[in-house]
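Weekly sync, protein design subgroup
Attendees: M.S., D.O., the rotation student, P.L. (late)

Item 1: inverse folding check
M.S. brought a backbone from last month's batch and wanted to see whether the design step gives back something sensible before we order anything. D.O. pointed out we never logged the input encoding, so this time it goes straight into the notes. Structure tokens as presented (213 positions):
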């Protein structure tokens, strides 16, 4: 996919390089970057992804999405500066994986307690009714009968969209996912289209996020 297409839902502050370049993958982890990838440099609470831009380019990144434009720029690499890479990462990943949430009925479950129980009950109930479904939860992710180990309550935006894309390819109609308040604050679900949301044990902290759904 062309970089220009991946950027259509973002608002670049500056672009240095060719936006007509072909992108073969999107990553926020420089260690996973391969030739032709777009590396998204995100500022984490402990590690700043901007420190790994050079490493990502050495591994083959053809474009970099960043908040801080590097002073030194590698030849043949396109640099795109945005105000918030956390927000942009999800929007870019969504488009790269074919905008999967628009081909599913996606339901998010948030709250203090009960997210796993509610999401899993919905997944099992809709499957019993004959629908093909996917589940994203703390315990395990599922694409129909296929179990995929879960590392987080809500995956990072790259993994999240990749999983949703696989659900679409498998013919899933519905997807039920846990949305932790932490993940919502980190904008991991940015770019997704939700059919609806469910709150469990709603607390004041979650009122700030209700418009997401």
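Designed sequence read out in the meeting:
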């Amino acid at each position: 996919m062309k970089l220009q297409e991946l950027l259509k839902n973002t608002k670049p502050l500056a672009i240095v390089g060719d936006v007509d370049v072909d992108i073969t993958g999107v990553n926020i982890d420089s260690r996973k970057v391969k030739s032709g990838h777009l590396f998204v440099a995100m500022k984490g609470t402990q590690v700043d992804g901007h420190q790994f831009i050079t490493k990502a380019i050495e591994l083959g990144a053809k474009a970099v999405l960043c908040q801080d434009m590097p002073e030194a720029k590698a030849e043949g690499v396109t640099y795109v500066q945005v105000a918030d890479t956390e927000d942009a990462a999800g929007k870019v990943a969504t488009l790269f994986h074919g905008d999967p949430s628009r081909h599913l009925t996606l339901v998010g479950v948030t709250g203090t307690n009960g997210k796993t129980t509610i999401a899993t009950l919905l997944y099992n109930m809709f499957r019993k009714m004959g629908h093909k479904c996917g589940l994203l939860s703390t315990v395990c992710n599922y694409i129909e009968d296929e179990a995929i180990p879960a590392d987080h309550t809500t995956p990072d935006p790259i993994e999240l969209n990749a999983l949703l894309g696989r659900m679409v390819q498998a013919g899933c109609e519905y997807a039920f996912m846990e949305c932790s308040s932490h993940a919502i604050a980190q904008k991991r679900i940015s770019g997704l289209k939700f059919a609806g949301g469910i709150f469990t044990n709603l607390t004041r902290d979650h009122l700030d996020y209700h418009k997401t759904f």
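Discussion: The radius of gyration is 18 Å. Helices lie at 3-6, 53-58, 85-96, 115-128, 157-169, 181-185, 204-207.
Action: P.L. to compare against the previous round before Friday.
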